[in-house]
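pinning this so it doesn't scroll away 📌
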Amino acid sequence: GYGRVGNPVCGDLMEIFIKVRDGKIEDIKFRTFGCGAAIATSSMITEMARGKSLEEAMRITRNDVADALDGLPPQKMHCSNLAADALHAAINDYLSKKQKH
């Protein structure tokens, strides 16, 4: 599955790629263009989601990502939103492709 989200205000762009096997995220990678906080949240979401079922990964929230990083400055909280949103988009993309088969 593939998820891509961006924030036009700050210019951050995040892409998440997932490989699913037996209903679990077997591998997950990211490509991020943005600030250090955007890169950190991208990396953290991959650590949080790897090995989880799709249902478990869909329950990872924006706040979960920020909490896992021991918080983010208020002006960088939008970065954790991108990471969770990109993961959810990748899962939804995977599920839509699976339904077509």
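📌 and the second one:
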Amino acid sequence: MKKQLLGTAMTLTVAGLCSTAWAAAGDTAPWSYSAPTGPHNWGELKSEYSLCSSGQTQSPIDIRDAVKTDAKVLNVAYQPSNATVSNNGHTIQVTPVDAGGITLESGHYSFVQMHFHTPSEEMIQGRTYPLDAHLVHRNAAGELAVVAVLFEEGAHNPNLEPILAAMPKSTGGTANLEAMNVAQLLPANHNAYSYMGSLTTPPCTEGVRWNVLTTPLEISRAQLEAFQALYPMNARPVQPLNGRSVHVGG
């Protein structure tokens, strides 16, 4: 794949999933990450966004006091696939043709899309990471499961490079990737914090199975700055736990 210089998410319906960072195409209520259309006001922008304010199982969260369980590590079965890299106005999104999926105790979920947030939306014991990737999956019933991968600043990440090199600089722009292997974007250790939550963007739909991998990956300063040149900040603040439990294998 020819590399270029580094350039410096979704409405759940019965029919399926439309992307945002997840924002749905044609959405008439603009939202952003800053006032007056930022996270604290999402619930008032449109009636369909009311859960952003009233929901009791919202994401992201600050992961603390996780309960150890005997649950198996995340079972991934990804395969190489062509994909589209798009700039949707809220994030950079990667949408594959057919990239396999994951199996949880609740069944199989097909990989639908992935996108990025800076800084990380998830916190671990109060710590924020400079970037995260959300891998969105859906099962046959339309239920969602997200795998979150945290990135810390360090060495150059060659597996992330093709995506960063293809990032369209303008909203609405797209580019193509050949034979993207999602499995290469995950750490070798698939142990994860798991909890029930929501979409982290409007409409903040609940009932999403979250799996935040416990092992972060590295990304170089130059790679991080390439993404932040397009999106300096696109993260929702952490939400109240409201009595939910977080589990971790081990």
